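Run ubiquitinyl hydrolase 1 through structure prediction, thanks.
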Amino acid sequence: MESIFHEKQEGSLCAQHCLNNLLQGEYFSPVELSSIAHQLDEEERMRMAEGGVTSEDYRTFLQQPSGNMDDSGFFSIQVISNALKVWGLELILFNSPEYQRLRIDPINERSFICNYKEHWFTVRKLGKQWFNLNSLLTGPELISDTYLALFLAQLQQEGYSIFVVKGDLPDCEADQLLQMIRVQQMHRPKLIGEELAQLKEQRVQKTDLERVLEANDGSGMLDEDEEDLQRALALSRQEIDLEDEEADLRRAIQLSMQGTSRNICQDTPQTSGTHLTSEELRKRREAYFEKQQQQQQQDPPGHPCGKPNTSSGALDSDLGDAMSEEDMLQAAVTMSLETVRSNFKTEGKK
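Sure, done. The structure for ubiquitinyl hydrolase 1 is below.
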């Protein structure tokens, strides 16, 4: 593809690009085409003068702008045709009845010039392959042999005028190289307008991104990461708080149990009772404390530990019942602590 000469669109000089892409070189410039257009204008003026320079038709002709060129750089088919005559080339209208009667397969031609709404472009065979050399494309577009007839038919349907270029085109490097090799094109070249639109969109997106970064002091892209970090830290702090509360609760229960134990005389033996219901435990506890109060009223002050003056068997039985109650209370506290710990962990996971 690099060896193919392809002029891209500049202003309205599509006629110049069309001719140079056809001939595969910088053969024509706007100045040369303007010279051909002025020459054609002069020839037309001379023919109109033959009817008399004082005629109404002649004065009207002089007032009209040139039909062969304009200030934008457009050139007529007459200018293109005269420019090709220098190379011995001739243009024939492809869809004219005269040419259609010849029943020539387009694939057997060498090149076409197409025009629609003052835009000119070339379709030419280089080597053994056809290429669309439209100056509005970013590069040559490969056209398969089977697609060529459909491509030309589509142009005709869209209103294009198609001209067959007859004659021997000048030799060019691309034609010689592509005679030996065939090229493949993976992606169709874009229109220059499409490429400019994409570049403009990219610039707009880049500007918007820079504006966002400036508004956030360059840290706008890090907001999401910072939020995730803050959520993780909050969960971590919550877990630490739960652990601290659990430790405080455990210490409070232990102190409470120690306080209960100190209320019992140090020489009281530790015994384990049988499993009793809560109602039986409550009744035995009330009976025990009633006995303690009665004993304290009977014993003189300073009696060690307020120990009741009863037989050892009765005391052991009462203390055994009391310690059984304490054992059950400790077991209940332990179960409660496990339940609290489980609840804290469940709330922490939420």
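The first strand starts at residue 90 and ends at 93.
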